[in-house]
Design goal:
GO molecular function, one term: electron transfer activity
Protein name: Cytochrome c
Keywords: Electron transport, Heme, Iron, Metal-binding, Signal, Transport
Organism: Sulfuriferula multivorans
Low-confidence stretches: 1-39
Number of domains: 2
InterPro entries: Cyt_c-like_dom (IPR009056), Cyt_c-like_dom_sf (IPR036909), Cyt_C_IC (IPR008168), Cytochrome_c-type_DH (IPR051459)
Distance between the termini: 49 Å
Largest sheet: none
Length: 164
């Protein structure tokens, strides 16, 4: 009743499965799949960040943030991952060379609003000094500093944070 599967069929199936794994790995390293299954990196990235909001955020960043986080969010000399003599972490760069992009918008807003989490750094709380809109503009400006590949990775972080 049952037919034996030819070893050649098994080799063919293994080859097809291997090709699928390589295609999935390529998508994982190059970008996410869109709803229609196409690699989204093929199309230009529409960040949906308003030019006016970026400009406002840039002004706020320069006035309130650049002293610690460096011009254009590039950070200060030294290693931001090593605690200073006070046992606190120095301000990290906010471009894509550090970890800001690992956090969803809500966490970035909270850090600006409430300052360094758990006293780990010296960032002051900006609540009461900056309006909610100014904080949002600043976060949008920071996101504009990230390269497309990093922004795509951040989008995944943001989407995961919004899932129930």
């Amino acid at each position: 009743m049952y037919k034996t599967i030819s070893p050649w069929v098994l080799v063919l199936l293994a080859g097809l499965l291997s090709a699928c794994d390589k295609a999935a790995e390529s998508v994982a390293t190059q970008g996410a799949l869109s709803h229609d299954g196409a690699v989204s990196d093929a199309a230009p990235l529409d960040r949906k960040l308003g030019v006016a909001q970026i400009a406002r955020g840039s002004v706020i960043f320069e006035k309130s943030c650049a002293e610690c986080h460096g011009a254009n969010g590039k950070g200060q000399p030294g290693d931001w991952r090593v605690r200073n003599a006070e046992g606190k972490y120095p301000p990290p760069p906010l471009d894509d060379s550090a970890h800001a992009w690992h956090h969803p918008t809500a966490v970035l807003m909270e850090a600006i609003r409430d300052g360094s989490p758990g006293g780990e750094g010296n960032m002051p709380a900006w609540k009461g000094k900056l309006s909610e809109q100014e904080m949002q503009d600043t976060v949008v400006y920071i996101k504009s500093l990230w390269t497309d590949p990093v922004y795509r990775l951040w989008l995944k972080v943001e989407q995961q944070s919004l899932e129930p």
